Structure formats: structure tokens, C-alpha cells
């Protein structure tokens, strides 16, 4: 069933929390992408197989195996902790025709050329190094007339946390500039279209949408943002402390800004997160 590796990445420490916290945002998005791909090229067609590249904790894998249990599925991720999460889920759920491997998406060396009919990648391209190389590798492993289903965030700094974080920091240090978390060439719809075409993909279709992210209260958001070890959030924290500034001082300001932007009458928080979906053919 599996190939476990020794690769470690900055995503290892968030593998368990990711599915619980981020999953409730990304599961409906991934479900929409899987449905769109299936409507275009059926996942239950003859000879179909699927690959989830940058699988994380296996959200797409779960959707595929729930709806198409006999479909052969390969999951890959650079984080061995993420692959361990996927394998635990696979074993508990009794998935058949399933494999998981620790692989760097820039070099899918153990995946044969033109061996995949349906290839998925969700919210990895925009955050990963060398996205053009990753897309080139996905084009290589996809069969002729195969289909790619892709999801990316649509703001260079994700959107939900951005304004609250920057405004809170500016109250303490007006000269602070937050580093960009995502490659701008892989977030905007037309940039995604151009990047896929450059890699040789055809019949590219794009949808720009947004999903509501709902939280029980501001403390839940703050705990995830500051204590959850998400590499993107950590990059912002480091950019702040490297200036000699204190996380403890900015945290209550950040919480106040979140409540002002997203607070509901019952104490919960709700705010939009923009994203892009794309399908393309080889």
C-alpha cells in the first residue's frame, strides 16, 4: 500500500491539526473540484486512475475513495508526517487500490511518464518552491488526453488573516511590511491560465470563487494562527520578531482586528477566503 520515506518538511508539525482546522475550509472546495473533473472526464471510466500530488492529509484521496472505491489512487507529498496521516486514514477506512509515497513534487521520479489519467493538486502549487517545475512534472506524468484538476488560493497573502495581521502590526510599527506568502504567478486566474498553457496544457478552464471560513470564536483563530505552526503564519511571525518586536504585544491587537472584520453576534467569526479552480487537458 505505501512507501514511507524520511523526508521532513516544515509542514510535518502541522499534519494532525491541518485536517481538523483547514479541512473544514478546503473539503467543500476539493469536493467541487473532484465533481468538476468527473463531469469532464469520468473517474469511473475504463482504465481510469488518479494521483493526488501534494496530498496533505488526504482530503482529495478521501473524496475519491468514498465515491469511487475501486479507482486506483496514488497520493504523494514531500512531508512524511502528512503521508503518515493519509496512511492511517487509509488503513482505518479499508481503502483498496491505494498507494502513498513521500516525493518531492519537483521530481516525481518514481511516477512513470504518461501513467496518470486524472491528476489533482490542491493548494500546493501557490505555496511551493519552483511551481513551474512542479507543473512541468505533472504534465509529464499525465497521459495524453488526461485531465488536471487544480486549486490555488487567490490572494498572495491568503486573505483571511492578512488585513488583521498587517493592521495590528502597523499600530506598533508603521514601517512593517509583511512578506508575500505565495507566488503571484500562481494565484490570479489569468496567471494560472498562462502558467498551465506554458507547461503545455490545453483546454484550460478557470473558476474564481470564495469559501466562507467559520470559527467558533476569536480564541480559536488566534490559537491556530499563533500556535498552530502553519509555515505561512510562521513566516509572518518571524518577519515580526526579527525586527525586535513582540508576538505577545501584537496578538491582542490581531484578535481585535479579526473581531472587527469577521465577528458575528454570537461571538463566532465568519469571513471569505478567495480561491481559484482550474481544469486542463494534456
TrEMBL record:
Record-linked CDD domains: AdoMet_MTases
Protein name: Methyltransferase type 11 domain-containing protein
InterPro entries named in the record: Methyltransf_11, SAM-dependent_MTases_sf
One GO molecular-function entry: S-adenosylmethionine-dependent methyltransferase activity
Positions of transmembrane segments: none
Source organism superkingdom: Eukaryota
Domain Methyltransferase type: residue ranges: 52-148
Amino acid at each position: 500500500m505505501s512507501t514511507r520515506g524520511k523526508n521532513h518538511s516544515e509542514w510535518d508539525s502541522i499534519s494532525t491539526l491541518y485536517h481538523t482546522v483547514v479541512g473544514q475550509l478546503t473539503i467543500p472546495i476539493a469536493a467541487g473540484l473532484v465533481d468538476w473533473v468527473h463531469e469532464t472526464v469520468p473517474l469511473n471510466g475504463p482504465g481510469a486512475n488518479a494521483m493526488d500530488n501534494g496530498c496533505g492529509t488526504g482530503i482529495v484521496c478521501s473524496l475519491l475513495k468514498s465515491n469511487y472505491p475501486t479507482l486506483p489512487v496514488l497520493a504523494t507529498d514531500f512531508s512524511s508526517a502528512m503521508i503518515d496521516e493519509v496512511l492511517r486514514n487509509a488503513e482505518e477506512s479499508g481503502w483498496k487500490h491505494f498507494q502513498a509515497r513521500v516525493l518531492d513534487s519537483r521530481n516525481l521520479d518514481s511516477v512513470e511518464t504518461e501513467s496518470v489519467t486524472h491528476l489533482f493538486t490542491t493548494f500546493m502549487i501557490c505555496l511551493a518552491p519552483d511551481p513551474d517545475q512542479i507543473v512541468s512534472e505533472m504534465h509529464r506524468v499525465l497521459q495524453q488526453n488526461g485531465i488536471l484538476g487544480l486549486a490555488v488560493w487567490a490572494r498572495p497573502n491568503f486573505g483571511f488573516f492578512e488585513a488583521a495581521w498587517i493592521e495590528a502590526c502597523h499600530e506598533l510599527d508603521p514601517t512593517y511590511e509583511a512578506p508575500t506568502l505565495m507566488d503571484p504567478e500562481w494565484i490570479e486566474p489569468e496567471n494560472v491560465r498562462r502558467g498551465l498553457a506554458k507547461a503545455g496544457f490545453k483546454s484550460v478552464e478557470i473558476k474564481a470563487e470564495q469559501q466562507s471560513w467559520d470559527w467558533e470564536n476569536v480564541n480559536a483563530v488566534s490559537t491556530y494562527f499563533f500556535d498552530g505552526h502553519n509555515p505561512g503564519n510562521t513566516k509572518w511571525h518571524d518577519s515580526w520578531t526579527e525586527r525586535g518586536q513582540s508576538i505577545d504585544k501584537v496578538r491582542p491587537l490581531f484578535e481585535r482586528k479579526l473581531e472587527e472584520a469577521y465577528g458575528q453576534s454570537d461571538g463566532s467569526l465568519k469571513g471569505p477566503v478567495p480561491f481559484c479552480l482550474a481544469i486542463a487537458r494534456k
